[in-house]
Each structure stands twice: as C-alpha cells, then as structure tokens.
Amino acid sequence: MEFDVTRPLLADKTAVITGAAQGIGYAIAELFVSEGARVVIGDLDADLAAVAAEKLGGQAAAVGVRCDVTQSGDVDALLSAAIDAFGTLDVVVNNAGITRDATMRTMTEDQFDQVIAVHLKGTWNGTRKAAAIMREAEAGAIVNVSSISGKVGMAGQTNYSAAKAGIVGMTKAAAKEMAHHGVRVNAIQPGLIRTAMTEAMPERIFAEKLAGIPMQRAGEPSEIASVALFLASDLSSYMTGTVLEVTGGRFM
C-alpha cells in the first residue's frame, strides 16, 4: 500500500472514542482530530463530553454524546450519532474504564461486577456493534484498550486484571471473525501512564511502579494516543489481532 505523505493519516475518517472526555481518551481524540478525523466523544458524563468536543473544534470536528458502555442501546446511539453527524463510521476506540481496587478478601461482588461490566462487556458492546456496521462497508479499524495488568496480574486488581486479560482474548477472537470482512481489530496494553488516576496514587506506590520501568519514567497519554493512531490508520493495514505493549519496557 502506498501513502500520500502530504495527506493526514485519518483524513475524511470518522472515529468514535469511548471514555474520551479526559485522560488517555481525550489525548487520542485530540491527536485524531489533528490528523484529519471527525470524532465522537462518548462519555458517561454528558457535560464533560460536550466541553471536550468544544475544545476540539466544535460541531465541524467533534461532538460529545453521553454513553454508558455497559448498555447496548447507549452504544447503538453513540455509533448512530457518528453516522448522523459525519456520514461514516471508520474507527472505534474502546477506551472507557473504571477501577475498583481491593484485595480479594475485601472486594465486594459489586466492585467486581462493575469493573467487568465496564471494561469487558463495554468493550464487547463497542466491538460487536462497530463490527456490524463496518462489515457492510468492508472496512474499519477497532482499537481496544487493555492494560499491562491483563498480562501480569496486579495485586488488588483481580477484577481489573481479569477484565483487561479478557479484552486481549476478545480482540483476537473478533479479529479472526472480522478479517475477511475487511475490519481490523487490535489492542493496546498501556503500562504506567501519567493521568489523574495514577497521580492520585500514594507516592510510595507510584515510586515502586516507576522502579520497575527500564525507561525510568511514566508514559504520557500522548504516547498511547500515537499508538492508537497507528492502529487506526493505514500504517497498520496488515495488522489484526495484535496486542501492542506501551510500557517503557515494564514487564517485558
């Protein structure tokens, strides 16, 4: 495949990104817009989604939609909003997530169920609903955000680690189902990324995590966004079912 280097990587593409009102999701949306995409920001907080869309350029470039990814009807509405606003659905990034950390001894069933619902069922909803639309166009890219926790397992995160590992298996299975329809499905496993969530960690815990990173620093949301751009664009046109670790070498 040949590339026009003068053309933005996502020119004339429409991308839906869940959990994109802030943090990693917003960084992805911001980079996608800079590369020519129109974006739809899905977020549980409708007001934050609207503010984020306005910051990205308003209705010509971005719209914000309230979406609870655990509800299939909400995901349908989110994807429909993209088609209604911009005419196509070319990229979906399933990024929405929560944490409810606790040891197995103290974790409640509700804390377990919430995390599994948002990460695993939410990603399944986003993947299957997007795939149903993209297969008609015989083109599309789905990017699922897992975590290095899904590779190694983290103490206090039996719920989160299980969900993030599940996303890897789901990504590979979906990639096999959708490849002959022209739809690619890949995943990213971020490591320690500097976000509001990680910066709220106790300093001792953050330092312990940092000590295990060969590059000796936390990653930035923009460094996840650039990998999402790679997987969303034709730069990765012969890649599907892959899992890219973006960890500074941690747990390699």
TrEMBL record:
<dbReference type="InterPro" id="IPR057326">
    <property type="entry name" value="KR_dom"/>
</dbReference>
<dbReference type="Pfam" id="PF13561">
    <property type="entry name" value="adh_short_C2"/>
</dbReference>
<comment type="similarity">
    <text>Belongs to the short-chain dehydrogenases/reductases (SDR) family.</text>
</comment>
<keyword id="KW-0560">Oxidoreductase</keyword>
<dbReference type="InterPro" id="IPR020904">
    <property type="entry name" value="Sc_DH/Rdtase_CS"/>
</dbReference>
<dbReference type="GO" id="GO:0030497">
    <property type="term" value="P:fatty acid elongation"/>
</dbReference>
<feature type="domain" description="Ketoreductase">
    <location>
        <begin position="13"/>
        <end position="196"/>
    </location>
</feature>
<dbReference type="GO" id="GO:0004316">
    <property type="term" value="F:3-oxoacyl-[acyl-carrier-protein] reductase (NADPH) activity"/>
</dbReference>
<dbReference type="InterPro" id="IPR036291">
    <property type="entry name" value="NAD(P)-bd_dom_sf"/>
</dbReference>
<protein>
    <submittedName>
        <fullName>3-oxoacyl-ACP reductase FabG</fullName>
        <ecNumber>1.1.1.100</ecNumber>
    </submittedName>
</protein>
<dbReference type="InterPro" id="IPR002347">
    <property type="entry name" value="SDR_fam"/>
</dbReference>
